[in-house]
Every structure is written in C-alpha cells, then in structure tokens.
Design goal:
It is a multi-pass membrane protein. It is built from 4 helices and 10 strands, in the order αββββαβββαββαβ. The chain is an alpha+beta fold. The strands form 3 sheets. A 5-stranded mixed sheet has the order 7-6-10-8-9, with no helix packed on it. The termini are far apart.
Amino acid sequence: MEKLITKYRQILNLVLVTLIIGGCSSNPNLPSATIQPSVTKDISSYKYLIGPGDVLNIFVWRNPEVSGSFVVRPDGMITTSLVEDIPVSGKTPTELARSIEQTLSTYLRDPIVTVTVNDFNGPFSEQIRVIGEAAEPQALSYTQNMTLLDVMIQVGGLTEFADGNDAVLVRVENGQQKQYNIYLEDLIKNGDISANADLLPGDIIVIPETWF
C-alpha cells in the first residue's frame, strides 16, 4: 500500500511539472532591456562617475567623527553617522563633495568636504562590456583614452572559435542604439593597428562564434 501511494505521488508530481512547464511556455517574453546611455559623449568630456561598489573616502575638515570610508550600496547611496541615505551614484567626486557640504550644513557650520574614490566600478552605464567569444568575457571599468586594443588585452583576446572580423560594437547615441563593425581578427592576430578604435563608457562589444 505504501509503495502504491509513493507511485501515485510520483505520477502526480510529474503531471504538475508538465502543467507548469506547459503554462510557462505560453507566457509572453520579457520586454527588452533598456541600455542606459553614458553621460560621456566624446573622449575629451570624460569624467569618472561614482557607482555601486565603489569605496569612498570622505574627509570633513575638522570633523573626524563624520569622516570615514564608505561603500556605495547597490541602490547608489551611502550611510554616514549623521545622514542615513545620501545619493551618490552618477556623481563625480567633486559634485558629491559639494552635495555633502550642503547636506552637512544642517548639522555643521561651514563644512569643507573632500571625496576620493577607491575600488573603482562606476555605474553600469559607464562600463565597457565584452560578451561572446572573448577568452574572458566581462564588464570593465572605463579608463580615460581606452581603446579597443586595451579592452581586448584585458579580456585575454579571442577564443579559437571566435569570428573576430564579424564582431560589432553597440553604442547609444542620441537615445538610439547604433552598431559599428569592428575587426578584431585583423587587430589582434594580424597586428593591423588601423583596426584599433577609441571606446567610450557604456560601449558593448559582441563577438560571435564562427560558423566553420
């Protein structure tokens, strides 16, 4: 009797799983993700923006009790001894220093604040992302004057299955996603430096797999 009950339970579980899978297959697809545009429009205008995971050293002159090191939370805020929620993501260190001075002026007289950054991450909109047939696909913090060659060195180059000359670079310009052809095979394996290109924060590099 006990074996029969166990068997019926197994059959029931199988039926439930089948119904769940069948129901899921009729669900609509999620809407496509919106790629947030970078605030950097050209190389000369680049300024580092603070992002989640960054470690901030905040020094308040003559007020060591409110100075310290703070990690930016996933929601883009930090908590200090005087103020629990200070929005910091997307600001330059100088902009944040002026903002904190304004916030602290409620508690302190004429606060002078300096902000420095450690463990750079930056917002997702400012990172370079490499996907597909790179040896080490990853998101990289943008560095001023970073080029395509610099990024490919950091991701370890191409895999043996990569179709490097059919790779594309996706960039948001004026609110629209644009794709540019890039020739990674020529750049990396053939040493064609003319295939190198300047990158901007937020660029996405997609490297397809070869068909043969």
